[in-house]
Amino acid sequence: MESLILPALIVIIWLSYRYFKKRKMVKLIKQKYPNKELVERIVKKHALDFSTDSDNEILASKNLEKAFLYWAENDLKRARDCFQRTAQITAQDDIPQYKSEIVTKIITEFTEYDDLFHDIIRDTQNILDKNPNILQTDIYAHLKEYSKRDIQYALYYADVKNLISRVKKNRSYILNNKDSNND
After folding, report:
1. Sorting pLDDT into bands at 50, 70 and 90, what band is 183?
2. Cα(105)–Cα(103) distance, rounded to whole angstroms?
3. CB of 67 within 8 A of CB of 74?
4. Residue 101, phi-psi category: left (phi > 0), alpha (psi -120 to 50), beta (remainder)
5. Between 18 and 94, where is the model more confident?
6. What average pLDDT score do residues 12-25 get?
7. What is the rounded CA–CA span in Å between residue 12 and residue 136?
8. Where are the alpha helices (DSSP H) in the chain?
9. What does each C-alpha distance from 182 to 120, 124, 128, 157 come to in angstroms?
10. Which strands form 172-177's sheet, in the order they lie side by side?
11. Whole-angstrom distance, CA of residue 98 vs CA of residue 47
12. Percentage of the chain exceeding pLDDT 70
């Protein structure tokens, strides 16, 4: 009987070790990738296959993969930069329009979780309440704490989400809150 106790004890210790090691690994993965499940759900929702025949599609695919990885890691600044590069690449004439539209949907969904987007839009809407019909080129002076690129990103996707209106005027846009009667 004693001869069976030692091997059983070794198996129990080994299984316990594996169980706790696995739990520790899961915890480490969740720490490194806090948005992993969210990003995986969005990747499945917006399935997008890029061609390996086009240099621009390969580049867009790599940038999109990086954006998803950074988002999973909760590095929203790097994710935002990669998403913006992906959007610029997919706007090229050699990439099918539907792929560009899917990228826009992905980035629009990303903005839901992007605090910078919400901060810029909140500040912009406050400015638009006081200054309706302001040109986008003029709003940069009111939003000095943000980069021009970040403001452009936020305004574009706020228009896509119908939070504000952007109407092209010459080389700029006239901005208004959506609930404004100045459209």
Report:
1. very low
2. 5
3. no
4. alpha
5. 94
6. 59
7. 67
8. 2-32, 36-45, 55-72, 76-90, 97-111, 115-130, 136-139, 148-160
9. 21, 16, 10, 20
10. 134-135, 172-177, 164-169
11. 12
12. 80
For the chain, give the mean pLDDT: 87
SS3 21: helix
Are 173 and 135 contacting, i.e. CB atoms less than 8 angstroms apart? Answer: yes
At 64-77, the pLDDT tens digits run 999 999 999 899 99
Is 148 within 8 Å of 140 (Cβ atoms)? yes
C-alpha 154 chain-centroid distance = 12
Q: Which residue has the tokens 């590069």?
A: 85
Tell me which of 150 and 183 has the higher pLDDT.
Answer: 150
When comparing pLDDT for 47 and 180, which is higher?
47
